[in-house]
Amino acid sequence: MTKHGKRTPLIKSLLSSQQTAKVAALVAAAGLITAAGVVSRNFYQSDSTAPINTVTAFSATDSAASRSAARGAINSADKNTTFVTVKINGDSRVVLGEKPDMTTVKDVLETGNITLDPSDSVSPALDSKVTEATVITIDRANADVETTETEIAFNEVRKETSDLPKGQEKVETEGQNGILETTALVTKAGDKVVSSNVFASWVKQAPVDKVILVGTATSSSSSSSSASLGTTTPAGEIQSWAHQYLLSNGYSEEDFTAANYIISHESGWSPTATNPTSGAYGLAQAYPGSKMVSAGADWQTNYKTQFKWFVDYCNQRYGGIVQAYNHWMTYKNY
């Protein structure tokens, strides 16, 4: 899902027919959303995003605080956070960002990640002042909203248990791939795709891990189930790096299992995941994504930077990754 686009100043792009303007839209809903889902999106992020020191807990998964991005919920997250609704060819979303960076229409667009074509119609004007009641409308001719689905690979988790004889294995849960739904604004000339701008991608269905129980009981041992989260086999490059990073820094297999479960449900391990109803961004669905600048200036696209921020966040707020996992399992957000 990661896309690396060349950054182009908004005004220059609007004045030139040869360039597109890189503009961004962080997204936050103004009402309670009851349907579960994590969303990802590769929107260009402004270079001027300021660091945010306060770590807050907003998940992008279920109908918890992160899915209820009303004014009260946003206030509880960060007093400096605000939002403005953006409607792109009829598809509504809300741009989430810091108040100093969200004073005009141009500011709002540059805070998130929408791509403006020179021929796009934008209302109000780019220099218009905005409030949380503002609705910015972007209309693009000859463009359609298209939705696609891709699979999210499940993981294999091995858990030791003294309920089975040593060496015996039993499949407790069969694995099932998840579904990542992606929505894009597609412009065509006849049957040829001229441009395809992804503005939302969410975990429509979270993957289900394949859980294998591994017996440890001997004739002299007593039978009691283990509370361990087990050992997870990484799937893919990003997970493999995250697994090695944790083990190299004193963390355990159980920590990776916990991290994998959270991130698989939050973003499907997509570094550009953006929730269209809360604006949460990246692997860990940071709220807003610009918080991750504390881990590196390349937080928009670098999964390593994002994962390091995730680990620090779990340690700061919950005292560890497993503790964050326990909170997630109870509240379906962290």
Automatic annotation (TrEMBL):
<protein>
    <submittedName>
        <fullName>G5 domain-containing protein</fullName>
    </submittedName>
</protein>
<dbReference type="InterPro" id="IPR011098">
    <property type="entry name" value="G5_dom"/>
</dbReference>
<dbReference type="Pfam" id="PF03990">
    <property type="entry name" value="DUF348"/>
</dbReference>
<dbReference type="Pfam" id="PF07501">
    <property type="entry name" value="G5"/>
</dbReference>
<feature type="domain" description="G5">
    <location>
        <begin position="138"/>
        <end position="218"/>
    </location>
</feature>
<keyword id="KW-0732">Signal</keyword>
<dbReference type="InterPro" id="IPR007137">
    <property type="entry name" value="DUF348"/>
</dbReference>
<dbReference type="InterPro" id="IPR023346">
    <property type="entry name" value="Lysozyme-like_dom_sf"/>
</dbReference>
